[in-house]
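Shapes recur. One chain:

:::
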Amino acid sequence: QVQLVQSGGGLVQPGGSLILSCVASGFTLDYNAIGWFRQVPGKEREGVSCISNSDGSIYYADSVKGRFTISRDNAKNTVYLQMNSLIPEDPAVYYCAADLGCGIKWSTRRFPSWGQGTQVTVSS
């Protein structure tokens, strides 16, 4: 059974940094992609980043390019989202999700497996 367990998140001041982790079990990251998404109540879910292990491709939303970095540690079956220079537009519940690949339409596609979500708050 595929399971994604998230950790990290919390409260940070504007300009600060946080790192989110997503540990996968029930499958190996070697053959799967992990995407990070975020959602604010009343707004559509937004794709943040995706890393595809099969071809090594990485995608970022324009809103986070240059500030967020996605990475993976296949030995630990873990994907990370390093978030730097956090701004007031970044607060949301962040989710990791797994699929066979990212693909060009990764940000709007429904991934089949999801983590439990973690809150990120940016406030002074």
